[in-house]
Design brief:
single chain, 184 residues, mainly alpha, Rna Polymerase Sigma Factor, Chain: A, 8 helices
Length: 184
């Protein structure tokens, strides 16, 4: 009994796709989680959004070779997912508690008092980010937290690069004002 060549080729193609998707998960899951968490502010919701993003990748696995920049493509997918979830929820869950902040703050070399002060500062900065208008907040989150370039942000948000730069300029100025106001 001989196995048809087409079946062998199909199996090899399927294995290559599986390996490519596995590599995407390994390489980008952390970045996608940070993007999702920066919008949703809830660890389990952020994890769910990342899982949904990779499920969408699986459904469109045949177009994977056509994607030029996988990082931007994946961030755009997760960005759309979290915005859809936020629109559906209409409320922003407040989960900026100390245990979650402790998870993302460095834990070595700082006293308990320094950790508490750092956690409070982190919470104040996040509160200032939340006060920004939506368009400015979006570009700031993608720029500052995900370190995307203005070209990549433009691709994720579907706007021009000059719009990204002007929104980022406004966001930074507003953040400076808000943080200075917090200090006084």
């Amino acid at each position: 009994m001989e196995i048809p060549t087409s079946a062998v080729n199909e199996e090899a193609r399927r294995r290559a796709e599986d390996a490519a998707i596995s590599a995407l998960v390994d390489q980008y899951a952390g970045a996608l989680y940070r993007v999702a968490y920066s919008v949703l502010r809830n660890p389990s919701d952020a994890e769910d959004a990342v899982q949904e993003a990779f499920l969408r990748v699986l459904r469109h696995r045949d177009t994977l070779t056509e994607v030029r920049n996988h990082r931007v493509w994946l961030i755009r997918i997760v960005w759309n997912i979290v915005l859809d979830r936020k629109r559906r929820a209409k409320t922003r869950p407040e989960t900026d508690d100390v245990s979650e902040l402790a998870r993302v703050l460095p834990s070595t070399g700082l006293s308990a008092e320094e950790l508490a002060a750092a956690a409070q500062h982190h919470a104040r900065v996040l509160a200032c980010v939340e006060q920004l208008p939506a368009k400015e907040r979006e570009v700031l989150l993608l720029s500052a937290f995900e370190e995307l370039t203005s070209v990549e942000i433009a691709a994720v948000l579907g706007i021009t690069e000059s719009s990204v730069r002007s929104r980022l300029f406004r966001a930074r100025n507003l953040m400076a004002e808000l943080i200075n106001h917090e200090r006084h």
